[in-house]
């Protein structure tokens, strides 16, 4: 299977190696060949040092995410009672507020011990800036090279084989969540969804005629999440992945056709939700006022919180045209260079990678463990959806999410979010949107 992230990084890392080494040398905490750091000229293993506390930055500050973090912290406190967990969670904007505060702290030389990021290209700039330590040695120490599937580990490596984060989970983004009541009211069979984008649009027309909102979406990152699934459906997995290594042209006709589909789809949405985060944008599905929402599988926890049952109240299926494709993203944690409690940071990374930590966290959050070595008994603790996602991740074609940092660096995804915001507000047309998306990719290519 091709790895678009890795092929991009061969260029990015090659260009940045000299700058990174210079930055690290200036800081006095350069990584060694065995992933250590120097202190007074002596090699120090990754994570060696103060473990009395761990300062952790996340954006898991509300709802099921907050509950998932609490479950993980409970496991951490049992595994490492000597290490105090210090919650530095920052809420808002699907992580945007946390990222802004984190960026300021890193630039000011005031890093936390560890922080949440999306696995993949999102952390490339922080690697290049010298903020993060190569934690490849921890994969050996924690036994993760055997516990994590190769398809996941490949997406975490740079061109030299170094790894800078450990994922706590795996999410799937190309999922449609639908109200069974609304589908039936529009004369649609909840068990027989459309098989391509044109068929899905035809179903939306029927839903609109029945007096319901066909599909909802929220703020910019949810719009980018919807767009990427339309791109996957229309381009196919290989051509979609080619958008990130230059083999598919962002300015080409295939992308233009997908953007026309996207334009048609968002014409069915409720514009009043465009400033909302994912859960308020999903609420019309909970309340049987709208039919569809495309969202990552953290949505499971939202349905659970609303007291709704899969197969009775709601259904789910891959975005039409993407069956057999798993649009991948993962929450991961990195170890900072210069964090005040390196031992505490290492303890946190070990906890989130253990079976106990991953089972406790993912059962609440709606994602699936990044470990592939769970027993049948352990898998049985998860919901029907999660068990199906585990099966899909093991057999489907894996592609990387744009909206959630797996496919492109933050600079590009931020620019794409801005372009989509303009488009949803009617401030640009399809041709302008396409040129802005192409420019966003070119800025990091």
UniProtKB/TrEMBL annotation:
Q: Record's Gene3D superfamilies?
A: Periplasmic binding protein-like II (3.40.190.10)
Q: Which InterPro entries match?
A: Bact_solute-bd_prot1, SBP, TAT_signal
Q: Which UniProt keywords apply?
A: Signal, Transport
The entry's localization annotation reads: Cell envelope
Principal localisation: other
Q: Which SUPFAM superfamilies match?
A: Periplasmic binding protein-like II
From which residue to which does the signal peptide run? 1-25
GO CC, alphabetical: cell envelope
Q: Which domain of life is it from?
A: Bacteria
Q: Which PROSITE patterns match?
A: PROKAR_LIPOPROTEIN (PS51257), TAT (PS51318)
| Family from the record | Belongs to the bacterial solute-binding protein 1 family.
What is the recorded function of this protein according to its Swiss-Prot or TrEMBL entry? Part of a binding-protein-dependent transport system for a sugar.
PANTHER family according to UniProt: ARABINOSE-BINDING PROTEIN-RELATED (PTHR43649), BINDING PROTEIN COMPONENT OF ABC SUGAR TRANSPORTER-RELATED (PTHR43649:SF28)
Protein name stated in the entry: Probable sugar-binding periplasmic protein
């Amino acid at each position: 299977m091709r790895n678009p992230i890795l092929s991009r990084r061969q260029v990015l890392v090659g260009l940045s190696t000299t700058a990174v080494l210079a930055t690290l040398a200036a800081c006095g905490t350069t990584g060694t060949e065995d992933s250590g750091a120097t202190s007074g000229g002596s090699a120090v293993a990754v994570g060696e040092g103060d473990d009395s506390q761990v300062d952790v930055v996340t954006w898991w500050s509300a709802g099921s995410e907050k509950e998932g973090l609490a479950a993980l912290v409970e496991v951490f406190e049992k595994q490492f009672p000597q290490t105090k967990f210090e919650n530095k969670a920052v809420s808002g904007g699907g992580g945007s507020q946390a990222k802004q505060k984190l960026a300021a702290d890193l630039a000011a030389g005031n890093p936390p011990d560890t922080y949440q990021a999306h696995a993949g290209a999102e952390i490339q700039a922080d690697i290049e800036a010298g903020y993060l330590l190569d934690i490849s040695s921890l994969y050996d120490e924690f036994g993760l090279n055997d516990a994590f599937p190769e398809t996941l580990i490949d997406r975490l490596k740079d061109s030299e084989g170094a790894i800078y984060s450990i994922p706590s989970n795996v999410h799937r983004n190309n999922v449609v969540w639908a109200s069974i009541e609304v589908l039936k009211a529009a004369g649609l069979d909840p068990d027989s969804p459309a098989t391509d984008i044109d068929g899905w649009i035809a179903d939306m027309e029927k839903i609109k005629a029945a007096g319901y909102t066909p599909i909802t979406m929220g703020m910019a990152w949810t719009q980018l999440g919807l767009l990427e699934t339309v791109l996957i459906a229309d381009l196919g997995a290989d051509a979609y992945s080619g958008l990130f290594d230059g083999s598919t042209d962002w300015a080409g006709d295939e992308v233009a056709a997908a953007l026309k589909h996207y334009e048609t789809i968002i014409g069915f949405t409720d514009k009043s939700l465009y400033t909302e985060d994912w859960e308020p944008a999903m609420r019309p599905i909970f309340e049987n006022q709208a039919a569809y929402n495309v969202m990552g599988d953290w949505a499971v926890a939202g349905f659970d919180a609303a007291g709704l049952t899969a197969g009775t109240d709601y259904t789910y299926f891959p975005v039409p045209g993407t069956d057999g494709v798993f649009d991948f993203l993962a929450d991961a944690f990195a170890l900072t260079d210069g964090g005040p409690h390196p031992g505490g940071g290492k303890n946190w990374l070990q906890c989130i990678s253990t079976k106990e930590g991953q089972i406790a966290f993912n059962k609440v959050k709606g994602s699936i463990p990044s470990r592939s070595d769970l027993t049948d008994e352990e898998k049985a603790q998860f919901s029907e959806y999660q068990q199906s996602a585990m099966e899909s991740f093991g057999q489907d074609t894996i592609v990387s999410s744009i909206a959630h940092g797996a496919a492109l660096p933050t600079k590009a995804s931020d620019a794409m979010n801005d372009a989509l915001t303009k488009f949803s507000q009617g401030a640009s047309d399809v041709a302008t949107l396409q040129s802005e998306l192409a420019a966003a990719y070119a800025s990091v290519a």
